[in-house]
Write a structure and sequence with these properties.
Length: 273
């Protein structure tokens, strides 16, 4: 039970949620980021009682076993807190008026990526996206739901922040990786085996085997797979014809290519005629 709750809390934190799991002797995560107006929820996932007590006394709550405490943060600032029962337990909530969502995956050089975020600012406010050098590279307008988004096209890994008036979000890193797809092809009688490996590793990402089909005048996807834990995939095609193949690494949609292998060929099987 405790393990399951901790695992859920870890996933929620990665998604930008504002939940804190209170463990036996620590708040998890120790540091939480929230948007002004957000409610942060503390869940006691441990077998002993704790408190969530602001260092400046501005909020406080007790957490019995299995209990919850929540507090809404109206304005920006860094709010440190502690447990009055276990003095070694400390935590911090950092509240901003602008937050950028953490990019979910690395992209290829020059690929466009839509950065999104939330603002505790009036609808229609202009938000500027700044790069590492604090140069404005895109602008966005805050929608009625408080969300905004802007498209960037970095050529190397870049940390971005959103700025509006005197407010700035914390930076988020958008990783750019120049991935290569390496392929090998081998014929075994009526079977053609295509092995693909992606470097740097892209475990779990989608790859597509394409064959060049003269009767359809081009490249066609014939098999899809996910890269295994060694960043490899293996495709088997049953054909005695000669084969021209290539493998594409794609985005999560399984369609948009990120990287493409060289073209490899296998001759016709001796029995093909
Ligand atoms: Cu405690």
């Amino acid at each position: 039970m405790t393990v399951a709750v901790a695992a859920l809390a870890a996933v929620a934190a990665a998604a930008g949620s504002s939940d804190v799991s209170v463990q036996y002797a620590a708040y998890q995560p120790v540091q939480t980021t929230a948007l002004a107006g957000d409610t942060v929820m503390w869940h006691n996932a441990s077998p002993r009682t704790h408190t969530v007590t602001a260092d400046d006394g501005s909020f406080a709550g007790s957490l019995y076993v299995g209990g919850m405490y929540s507090h809404s943060f109206d304005g920006p600032g860094a709010f440190t807190y502690h447990c009055t029962l276990h003095p070694e337990m400390h935590g911090e909530v950092d509240v901003y008026r602008l937050l950028l969502d953490t990019p979910s995956a690395a992209i290829a050089p020059g690929e466009s990526y839509t950065l999104s975020g939330r603002a505790a600012l009036p609808a229609g406010s202009t938000v500027t996206i700044q790069n590492d050098s604090s140069e404005g590279v895109a602008t966005a307008s805050v929608g009625a739901d408080g969300r905004f988004s802007a498209t960037v096209r970095p050529t190397t890994s870049t940390s971005y922040r959103a700025v509006s008036g005197g407010d700035a979000s914390p930076r988020v890193l958008l990783g750019v990786l120049d991935r290569k797809v390496r392929v090998a092809i081998a014929r075994h009688g009526g079977r053609v085996v295509v092995g693909a490996r992606v470097v740097p590793a892209a475990r779990g990402q989608r790859v597509v085997l394409q064959l060049h089909l003269p009767e359809r005048f081009g490249w066609w996807p014939v098999r899809r797979a996910r890269l295994d834990s060694h960043s490899r995939a293996r495709f088997v095609i049953h054909t005695r014809r000669r084969v021209r193949a290539r493998v594409l690494l794609t985005r999560a949609d399984g369609v948009t290519p990120v990287a493409r292998s060289a073209v490899v060929r296998a001759g016709a099987s001796a029995l093909a005629h």
